[in-house]
Fold this sequence. Notes:
- By secondary structure, the protein is mainly alpha-helical.
- It is about 60% helix and about 5% strand.
- The chain has two domains: about 5-285, Fido-like domain (Fic-like fold), CATH 1.10.3290.10; about 290-375, Winged helix-like DNA-binding domain superfamily/Winged helix DNA-binding domain (Arc Repressor Mutant, subunit A, Orthogonal Bundle), CATH 1.10.10.10.
Amino acid sequence: MDIKEFVSGNYKQQYKYKSFSPSFINIDWEVTDFSLVGILSLANNKLGELNAYSRLIPDVDFFIKMHIRKEATQSSRIEGTQTNMEDALKKSENISPEKRDDWEEVQNYISAMNFAVNELSNIPISTRLLKQAHNILLKGTRGKNKQPGEFRKSQNWIGGASLNDATFIPPHHSEINHLMSDLEKFIHNEFNKLPLVLKAGIAHYQFETIHPFLDGNGRIGRLLITLLLIDNGMLTKPSLYLSDFFEKHRQLYYDNLSRARTNNDLTQWLKFFLEGVYQTSNNAIDTFKNIIELKTNVELNRIVKLGKKVKTAQNMLNYLYSQPLVDSGDVVNILGINNSTAARLIDDFINLGILEEITGFKRNRIFIFKEYLNLFEK
């Protein structure tokens, strides 16, 4: 079926309301819209360039950890949390009580993403994997009573205070297993020649339309995009996350998903999605370039001034690349040095303009590699 001929589904009468039953997507797809093909080509090329960068940069896993934190922060912000990147880097004891719930949700999302990406080497993308990630996502948070790790057994809705004024009512829970099975088959259909990036866009749309969980659907649905690209070899590292783009264009994100359902306009959603892939890939490439520039400057022009301490300073830097917010206890534990040596090293890093103190306290001070963190907050 040509994407232009897409029929999203139909409404089914339930008790006092109608739920939306989406069409199955594990079918033979065709793409004949030249405007869509043009955007697809640009997105594919930029994604390939990003993948090349992530493969060539030494010690890239340090920086990938920061990409994951950014994704967790932005994806959670779409759902209403207020945690920023700096807060996400803090320890639990340094988070104020009013921010604790938001902070825990972001930490759970980081854990869920790391688990799902690592687990791809053991099992393929599947309902089992998504359920396991969902269980980690909601464990101990505000969603802990909303069936973590299980598909919903009741009707949910989007927008509005109840089913009576809902903006969108997903399919009845009795349909979820069949719809998710179809989605899984679509993801692994090797005979379907649909370009992978388009497959990821359709899979995300379908997952969000099914809304199989009582909570956390947006975050798991956005994680699904990255998992698809990694599982099929288009990305070797989890370096592409679209939540920043979706958060910046939140209303368009919702409007285009809705338009696909109400107007059968899957093409417009896919154009928006591909633009997101292109822009996000381009921004990630710029971030990698800026990381290389900063890394070169710090390592060749700054820490070399420390003489015999250079090796220890380099180990400290490697830690800061994945965790740019530290206290003296972290330095002692990570580097295996005593308190006074750690204090002197921190002072050296402050004098070199690498670290700055952010608490204003004389004790229990926290230091940040702000110049580096800023690269992920642009």
